[in-house]
Design a protein that fits this description.
single chain; 1276 residues; alpha+beta; 9-stranded mixed sheet; 6-stranded mixed sheet; 50 strands; 19% strand
Length: 1276
């Protein structure tokens, strides 16, 4: 339905509108003179369009009521033009002036980019019924019709043709977005309601306009109804449309492309498929249509209420805001495109510059390399003239080049050491002193203290090292040596790989050459007894060939399978080698039935094609089934045939054989490396499993005191702790408190003191207390102690000073490693005298395996220079101390970083660890030098672990001389390995250390009353030693004739026993039990009992082997005499320290005897169990802690080995025979029971050997104990 708004209604509505300046004024035209004001056509059609989203108002005429001019008098109605619609009742609208003065700006009620329409132009809304025609406009001359060819154009072309001619000055196109940044023009209108307007008279219907009028009324393309043109549309002239003919009806806009209005593509209006809010589709950032926009056309009429007018204004406002956002998006997109183009330009310029710079650098580099010889050949005067003034030395060329000559100059005037010297020597080398070292006198180069020398940089050099010397004074860069990088050669990694590969090649070549030489020159022996042509056995031909076997020939080797069950009904394989299998199996082929061969009970021939090498003089064969499970090797002699004319190969053919041998060696080494890798992986798995079991045993041994639920607490979850005070020193407590923490008491949020709840009303026998604690996410250890109160004087249970600790799983933080430094004078295997060296190495490895950093400091004895294990020793540092220079070197030994202290005063230029009257003085000096080294290198370990009297000085020297002078962090742990030596030193170290240990719990109890330790028992602990199960492992032991484990120990021990019997002349192959002693022959070891055991064992029908030596010549003489009259088929004596032989003795023996008078710990009994030898020991010290008698100690064995109180449930873990007396009868009691066990039930005895081999006597559990003590020392 259409309606018209009267002039007075519009006037009343305009009172509330905000003032809106004209487009020309917004562009700054208001500041111009009147002559510069852009003219406006006298009459323009005004159209109001509404879309699905918003109201769009367009105004093309400026009536007098809007401009403020006086309105003309009403005129009588004009005659209607022929064919035109009659004028409406009420008169024609006032004439529209040709222009509007810029000084008269009328208010507008809608923010828009055009002037509002006059009141005579109706607002129309498309409806289902035809809209009535609006009142006719004043008569206006109709422009002449365009030519036919112009009428045939598009709607925009027709509009352009019908429009009046433009003014003389070219008009500036109206910017449809010029008003987007204006202040809100709706505020006043929104604040005041609009006055109601009277209803206009109903308009009369009008006939449709003529084609020419419709064409003239079409708006210009690109500006349909005030909509902005598409972003990518070409600019069009903003020509005003021709006025409609008088009394004509409003002309609808012509259809555009695909029927879209105003020339826009279909769907281009108001968010259609092609455009969104006037912007092209696909432009990034264009605002999509907002939900809630009007979807129907809206007209503004006098009948509209204030709310409806406000809604129309809001819709128009929202549309303009969307248009503003669309324009901003378009501008942003254009800015991004400009930025991208600029970035691409800059990138292209940068690439061009880089190419130019690279080409220039390459040119200079080529020029530099080409002129090196010329530059070096210049005189010394020229070089010095261009030398840097303050440098100690310089080289020519400035950058050393691999494979090129060079000179080095030194200016002694710049050296505080060499200044004023008249001669200088250069000691130099390459690749960190590993390549082409040289020592030469430098030539003087004029006044000023300059010297120089020439040299050539090797092709394989990657760095140059040098020091300067004059009169035994060195300028060596403060001990770091002078260093220059070598350019244009190979990298360090490439050079090291080259030498590594070269070394492997040369080693393989040497090995292959030696083996081929043996193969070449032993052909006489290897051909002896070998059959020619055919091999016969048991009256039948077994092996033959179809053709004569000659060097270089290809023959068919045939095997007679008749009466041979190998392979059954399946196929068989032939494995061929040459020259007595000099290179193993060289050809392995599946055999086929020989076609045409005779077949009967005596003949069943299989054949395979074999290539004979030129160097072959025998062909060697064995046969297997196809699965290679069953073999026929001619009863161990192989099947062998001679090669006719073999052994006459040329040198070139033998050289080729060497290359083949090298390839064979490489394959074998690769296979061996693979086997070792698999074995290492299996050992690590076993070790991890043993470590896990050790932790479980430790947990089980505290379950009578403490349990947790869950057993393995998880970070971030709650844990329930149950405590049994009746089994601790809090058995009489009326209430129990838990004081807890996390991460070794370092966590910032400890649970503090918590009162535990009793499971009964009162604490008593069988009662327990519990509490719950929430574990933080970053906790990896839970720590706590228990007490009967929280006031001063309360009684605490702190687990003998170690506190209670429970590992936590799933922490977000990793446990920080401890840094432990051992200071010792022994270390196995490089400096081993007794068990001290074994303990230092094994304990360091075990603590390292738990994820901690462990280092060892040793004196550098002169005998280390001949150790094959120390070939990789490297320089670490040097410093002045104690009146001499101390040089420190480093090397990895048994996987541990070891530092070697070498004072230049010759203190340790000795051939043994002990044996001089000044051992104490030298070892004290070493201890202080070790602490000085830590201070100088700014190391701050957590723990200093010193051992026995020899390094006891560390404890007192640290606190007296170093703790307050830079070495502030460490705590000291001191271990007593043997109380019989250096007791005064031991007492001092026990006083100054935070923790003192000894090597077994029983030995700690035995020496607790000694004056050296009895005043410090509160920090005195016994921790059992262990053995290194990687060194003492029969499964991988390189010294054994056959490796074995608990599953096949019987065969492995038999092979070792036969080897020992052959070596010492014992009855070979005898099934007698073998008793052995591996020990130093000292009084401590029970010499009288050892002598007695030899005779008693032989009397009982056993074989006896003694391996050891006596430091006392008188003792050695006694044993020499015993060997003289008892040595024979059943007794063998070896008076020497022979480490490889000891491995064989442990493997061969059925029993190991250890009758010590005292034994702090002892490793012999644990090693023997590892190798399946049952220990027979005197129950003292560590022997008692590790050997559990089969007849009397089942419960104790179950507790110590399994952490169980019921051996019937967990199994028997007894592992030997023990006695307590010191007389021969006591020894006989244990030894006789052992031998009876062997004789009475040998099968059961083999199960006993298997059981003790599976027990874990490694450092797994002791290492956990030491780690707990380390943390206890840090806390204390």
């Amino acid at each position: 339905m259409a309606s018209a708004m009267t002039q007075d209604v519009i006037a009343r509505a305009a009172v509330k509108a905000n003032p809106v300046v004209s487009a020309a004024s917004r562009r700054g035209a208001g500041a111009r003179s009147n002559g510069g004001v852009r003219s406006t056509p006298a009459t323009k059609r005004a159209v109001v369009r509404t879309s699905r989203r918003s109201v769009v108002v367009h105004a093309d005429s400026k009536p007098a009521w809007l401009t403020g001019e006086k309105e003309p008098e009403p005129q009588p109605p004009a005659e209607a033009a022929p064919g035109a619609a009659p004028l409406p009742q009420g008169g024609a609208p006032p004439p529209v002036p040709s222009s509007i003065p810029k000084t008269a700006q009328a208010p507008s009620f809608i923010k828009r980019s055009r002037i509002p329409p006059p009141p005579s132009v109706p607002f129309t809304t498309p409806a289902a019924e035809p809209a009535p025609a609006p009142p006719a406009a004043p008569a206006t001359p109709t422009p002449p019709a365009p030519p036919a060819e112009q009428q045939a154009g598009t709607g925009s072309e027709q509009a352009a043709a019908a429009a009046p001619p433009p003014p003389p000055a070219e008009p500036t196109p109206v910017d449809p977005y010029a008003s987007l940044n204006m202040a809100d023009p709706y505020a006043a209108l929104d604040a005041a309601p609009a006055a109601p307007a009277p209803a206009p008279p109903p308009p009369q219907a009008a006939p449709p306009p003529p084609p020419q009028a419709a064409a003239a009324a079409a708006p210009p393309q690109g500006t349909p109804n005030g909509l902005p043109p598409p972003v990518n549309a070409p600019p069009t002239a903003m020509m005003p449309p021709a006025p409609p003919p008088p009394n004509s009806a409003p002309v609808p806009p012509p259809a555009g492309v695909n029927g879209a209005p105003n020339g826009y593509p279909a769907g281009a209006m108001n968010g259609g498929p092609g455009y969104t809010n006037g912007a092209p589709a696909g432009v990034p950032g264009v605002t999509p249509p907002a939900p809630g926009m009007p979807t129907e056309e809206v007209s503004i009429s006098p009948e509209m209420t204030e709310e409806e007018i406000a809604a129309a204004i809001a819709a128009e406002k929202q549309k303009l805001q969307l248009a503003q956002q669309a324009e901003l998006d378009r501008l942003a997109h254009e800015a991004e495109q400009r930025e991208a183009a600029e970035a691409a330009r800059m990138q292209a310029e940068a690439e061009a510059r880089a190419i130019a710079e690279a080409e220039e650098a390459k040119r200079k580099e080529e020029e530099f390399l080409a002129n090196i010889e010329v530059e070096v050949a210049k005189s010394a005067i020229d070089h010095i003239a261009n030398a840097p003034g303050r440098n100690l030395y310089f080289t020519v060329p400035e950058k050393l080049v691999a494979g090129k000559p060079a000179k080095i100059y030194i200016n002694t005037a710049n050296s505080g050491i060499l200044g004023g010297r008249h001669s200088v020597r250069l000691e130099a080398g390459f690749n960190d002193w590993k390549l082409d070292k040289f020592d030469t006198s430098m030539k003087p180069a004029g006044p000023g203290g300059f010297f120089y020398t020439d040299f050539v940089v090797p092709e394989l050099a990657y760095c140059f090292n040098c020091v300067f010397e004059a009169d035994n004074m060195y300028d060596n860069n403060g001990g770091e040596n002078w260093y220059e990088e070598v350019h244009y050669g190979k990298t360090k990694e490439e050079v090291e790989k080259y030498f590594h590969d070269k070394k492997i090649y040369e080693a393989a070549l040497e090995e292959a050459t030696k083996e081929i030489e043996v193969e070449k020159y032993e052909q006489g022996n290897r051909k002896e007894g070998v059959a020619e042509g055919e091999f016969h056995k048991d009256g039948r031909c077994i092996v033959k060939s179809d053709l004569p076997i000659k060097p270089g020939a290809t023959v068919q080797m045939m095997f007679n399978k008749a009466m041979n069950p190998i392979g059954g009904d399946g196929k068989i394989r032939i494995h061929v080698g040459f020259n007595k299998f000099a290179q193993g199996f060289e050809q392995e082929i599946t055999m086929e039935l020989v076609k045409g061969a005779k077949m009967d009970d005596q003949n069943y021939w299989w054949g395979a094609t074999v290539k004979i090498p030129p160097t072959a003089y025998t062909v060697d064969m064995v046969i297997s089934d196809e699965a290679e499970d069953v073999w026929d090797n001619n009863d161990g002699n192989d099947y062998r045939l001679l090669v006719e004319g073999g052994g006459n190969a040329t040198n070139e053919e033998w050289d080729a054989r060497i290359q083949e041998r090298m390839a064979y060696i490489a394959i074998q080494k690769e296979l061996e490396a693979k086997r070792q890798k698999e074995a290492l992986r299996a050992r690590r798995l076993r070790k991890a499993e043993a470590s896990k079991k050790a932790r479980e045993v430790t947990v089980r041994q505290t379950q009578h005191i403490l349990t947790t639920e869950p057993t393995h607490p998880v970070a971030g979850e709650e844990v329930t702790i149950t405590y049994h005070p009746e089994n601790t020193n809090l058995g009489m407590a009326q209430e129990v408190y838990l004081t807890g923490g996390f991460n070794r008491w370092t966590h910032p949020e400890p649970p503090g003191a918590v009162k535990m709840e009793a499971n009964n009303d009162k604490l008593g026998v069988g009662s327990a207390v519990t509490c719950k604690i929430k574990i933080p996410e970053d906790a990896w250890m839970m720590d706590f102690v228990f007490s009967d109160g929280i006031a001063e004087g309360s009684t605490y249970d702190n687990h003998f000073g170690k506190d209670y600790h429970v590992p936590i799983e799933g922490s977000t933080e990793e446990k920080p490693p401890l840094h432990v430094v051992h200071v010792s004078v022994e270390m196995a295997p490089i400096a081993k005298v007794g068990g001290l060296g074994d303990v230092v190495t094994a304990l360091a490895r075990a603590v390292h395996d738990q994820g901690n950093m462990v280092e060892i400091i040793l004196p550098k004895y002169s005998f280390f220079n001949m150790s094959p294990m120390l070939g990789g020793m490297q320089y670490e540092t040097q410093f002045e101390w104690g009146g001499t220079t101390i040089v420190v070197q480093r090397c990895i030994v048994e996987g541990i970083q070891v530092f070697f202290i070498e004072p230049q005063n010759g203190f340790f230029d000795v051939g043994s660890v002990y044996g001089r009257n000044d051992d104490g003085v030298k070892f004290d000096y070493f201890c202080n030098a070790a602490l000085e080294f830590l201070t100088c290198t700014q190391r701050q370990p957590d723990i200093l672990h010193c051992h026995d009297w020899s390094t006891a000085e560390v404890a007192s020297a640290y606190w007296g001389n170093y703790h307050h002078y830079g070495l502030w962090k460490p705590k000291v742990v001191f271990t007593i390995h043997n109380m019989n030596y250096g007791q005064m030193k031991i007492g001092e170290a026990s006083f100054h250390s935070q923790i003192t240990t000894t090597v077994s719990p029983s030995y700690a109890g035995e020496v607790a009353g000694h004056p050296a330790v009895n005043q410090n028992l509160h920090k005195f602990h016994g921790v059992r030693n262990g053995i290194d199960t990687e060194i003492w492992d029969p499964e991988t032991d390189q010294f054994l004739p056959m490796n074995y484990n608990a599953d096949n120990h019987e065969a492995g021990k038999r092979a070792a026993r036969e080897t020992l019997q052959s070596r010492f002349g014992l009855t070979w192959g005898s099934d007698q039990p073998m008793v052995a002693v591996v020990s130093r022959l000292t009084a401590q070891k029970g010499l009288d009992l050892i002598k007695h055991a030899i005779g008693h064992s032989v009397k009982r029908g056993a074989q006896f082997v003694l391996l050891g030596s006596a430091p006392d010549p008188r003792v050695q003489a006694d044993f020499n005499a015993m060997a003289g009259h008892m040595g024979g088929p059943n007794a063998a004596f070896c008076f020497a320290f022979d480490e490889p032989l000891s491995h064989v003795v442990y493997a061969a023996a059925d029993f190991i005897l250890v009758p010590s008078m005292f034994e702090p710990c002892g490793l012999t009994q644990m090693i023997s169990m590892r190798y399946g030898a049952v220990p027979v020991v005197r129950a003292t010290g560590g022997l008692r802690d590790t050997v559990f008698d089969l007849d009397t100690e089942k419960a104790r064995a179950s507790w110590e080995v399994d952490g169980s109180t019921d051996f019937k449930e967990t199994g028997d873990q007894t592992n030997g025979f023990s006695f307590e007396g010191t007389d021969p009868e006591a020894l006989n009691y244990a030894l006789d029971r052992a031998l009876d066990c062997y004789y009475n039930d040998k099968a059961w005895f083999r199960t006993l050997q298997e059981r003790i081999m599976r027990q874990d006597w490694s450092w797994n559990r002791p290492a956990l104990d030491y780690i707990e003590l380390y943390y206890s020392a840090i806390r204390g």
